[in-house]
TrEMBL record:
SUPFAM superfamilies: Galactose mutarotase-like (SSF74650), Six-hairpin glycosidases (SSF48208). Residues 11-296 form the Glycosyl hydrolase 94 supersandwich domain. SMART domains: CBM_X (SM01068). Pfam families: GH94_b-supersand, Glyco_hydro_94. The keyword Glycosyltransferase applies. GO terms for biological process: carbohydrate metabolic process. Residues 312-736 form the Glycosyl hydrolase 94 catalytic domain. InterPro entries: 6-hairpin_glycosidase_sf (IPR008928), 6hp_glycosidase-like_sf (IPR012341), Gal_mutarotase_sf_dom (IPR011013), GH65_N (IPR037018), GH94_catalytic (IPR033432), GH94_Enzymes (IPR052047), Glyco_hydrolase_94_b-supersand (IPR010383). This is Glycosyl transferase. It comes from the Bacteria. GO terms for molecular function: carbohydrate binding; glycosyltransferase activity. Keywords: Glycosyltransferase, Transferase. It comes from Dactylosporangium matsuzakiense.
Amino acid sequence: MRFGHFDDERREYVIDRPDTPLPWINYLGTESYFGIISNTAGGYSFYRDARLRRLTRYRYNNAPFDFGGRYLYLRDAGSGEYWSPTWQPTQTELDEYECRHGLSYTQIASGYKGIKAKVSYFVPLGETLEVWRLQLTNERESAAELSVFSSVEFALWDAQDDATNYQRNFNTGQVEVEDGVIYHKTEYRERRDHFAYFACSEPLAGFDTQREAFLGPYRAWDRPIAVERGTSSDSVAHGWQPHGSHHVRITLEPGESREIGFVLGYWENPKDAKFDPPGSQTINKQTVRPVIERWLQQETVDAGFAALRANWDRLLGTLQVHTPDGDTNRMVNIWNAYQNMVTFNMSRSTSGFETGIGRGMGFRDSNQDLLGFVHMIPERARERILDIAATQLSTGGAYHQYQPLTKRGNNDIGSGFNDDPLWLILGVAAYLKESGDLSILDAPVPYDNEAGSEQPLYDHLQRSLQYTLDRLGPHGLPLIGRADWNDCLNLNCFSDTPGEPFQTTENATGGVAESVFIAGQFVLAAKELAGIAQCVGKPHQEYLDAAEKMAGTIAEHGWDGAWFRRAYDFYGNVIGSASNDEGQIFVEPQGMCIMGGVGVEDGLAVKALASVRERLATPHGVVLQQPAYSSYRLELGEISSYPPGYKENAGIFCHTNPWIMIAEAIVGNGDAAFDYYRRILPSAREAISEVHRCEPYVYAQMIAGKDAPTHGEAKNSWLTGTAAYNFTAISQWILGIRPELTGLRVDPVIPSDWPGFTAVRQFRGATYRISVTRGAVRALSVDGQDFDPAGVLPLAPEGSVVEVNLTVS
Ligand code: BGC
Ligand code: IFM
């Protein structure tokens, strides 16, 4: 069952009923002012940091699930009836409803008793504000006397404090209203720098800034007293809950249309501003007023919206493909790329499942997210790499998370996730392959942000590799530490002494549990580093030797007969083996070892992939392990805390599926790779939206596995490494358009029933127009000249167009 459809032309998903299985959200903002918005206008806004600079209030895990947002009410003076043109919060049964989620904008249109309304929300480039544009049309045969009420609830900036510290924050709220603009100035008193404002383009009939005055005692947003009555009370908030509501009265003749603009924004007075008289509690509006005036003009809004769309054209233009599969085209060309950019901006901070309060950026996650956006914004990827590397410890280890504002490693969480450092090598390799900017390797980068500890980035990569070699366990495999990619496989963090408390993951690094996953990742990273070293004329053989040795150890201790094992626990017992009663086979080492090239030559890879298909594949994707753990196991940790089929306990952890797609491509099996790709492809699952439940336009972290009663149901959409890795799998391995250090490679491994495909790829300043067709033998021509079909395409001059024709058999 569908709840809407894709409009590929306009790059929108069109939702045609408000009661989607879950709130289907979108993101506003691309630079510093951001928000989430649901298909019924729920959500909130913030400036840079969703915890510390939260503009509007939102209550997670609410009933209804999505409540609180950018709300409008329309009231008909004739009948006294009122409704919300975005359905929430009044939930009036609308005659028409349509929500269009586009790239960084959302438009919700509806019709009720002859009054058409369309509300468009977006954040203009270069601004710290959002525009709401309300377009009203009277389709009745008589004039309509209407009232429009707006409504936002201001958060008192620190969202954590806002939700917990009521003894204080019921007293601190302050507002100011001048010339129809509502200023929310809580905190201005002490800091005198930032405030929020909410403005309207029309003369006001009234306003409210005290929530209870607007809603009325014992009422909620579905029937505010001000709206019911048809008049605001011009309330001014002193403490309690500052709120922003404008009241506008208009008369629309039959057939007449009108536009009303609202601007909700964040403002920081310039640091050196001298214009506040000492002790003044009045907001200084000198610098913000012209900005407000400008964005209340329709022409400014039109131009701002056009600029936003043009920016997305430019970003998405980096890769556009045309394949025989429509779902693939729209995901690669639009939605997967868009989701990658959202993970760049949001990391794991703000979504329907992340509250914006936990603000850490993952060392591992950030390096992987980079794979998905590096081709669109290489210069931002460079900055990101330098930020991440500066948090690395001098041991080569890594803080598991760092703070986006201070860019310091997070001491509360600490380090000891032993896969972390290797991701830096993989992230840097991706950047170098895309940009060719080898100079980044010489950039001085501190360890743990300590001044004076700077070393070239290349030194960081060496230490990352050495970190693993310094920590090998009894079988010669890498020690797992607190966990590897699978955060929940905590093999060193328990106590088997009755009555002793469990160890926390913080003191779990002393154990001897080993990870086959990290071993595979090491082989991959060592080969990548060897390639980089060779490229800049540094010794590289030692890395290749280390990779080979590790591959040998995997063959000896990591191979189970039909698949790669997962780990050895604290006691040296094997995990992920046919000899286990549960958790016999895990997906992660199959993907990662094969991506590292382990078992590819000797047939182990093909065997492992057959086992994946036989034991782990479901119609909804590949589950993480089998059999699921039926009960909690001290020696395994969090993984077994989940009921069977959910999350790391045999859920379909979508991040791991592309590793299997890549592995299938590596062994030349395009049918299998693409089959797995489509199983979890959001657009291809649109028709079963009542089962999948999350948005059909973006990936979710997890789909419930076959052991779960809700098999096929997705959770945790948007902010997941799934986005970057699926994009890599389809674009670089299945379609095979793969940046390498020396140039672009085109090496597709496509399904056997595809006649071919075309693509346009911007790469290092040139445009590659690629056409892949079927033929008797593999042949490649570049600009009409025959070329080695196994070769890397030559670099082309800036601005040039390269015609690439590949025939595959
Ligand atoms: C979750 C994992 C997640 C981890 C983040 C755990 O509680 O279950 O999925 O990766 O926290 O560190
Ligand atoms: O690898 C992790 C990731 O870092 C955070 N989300 C869950 C994944 C698997 O545990």
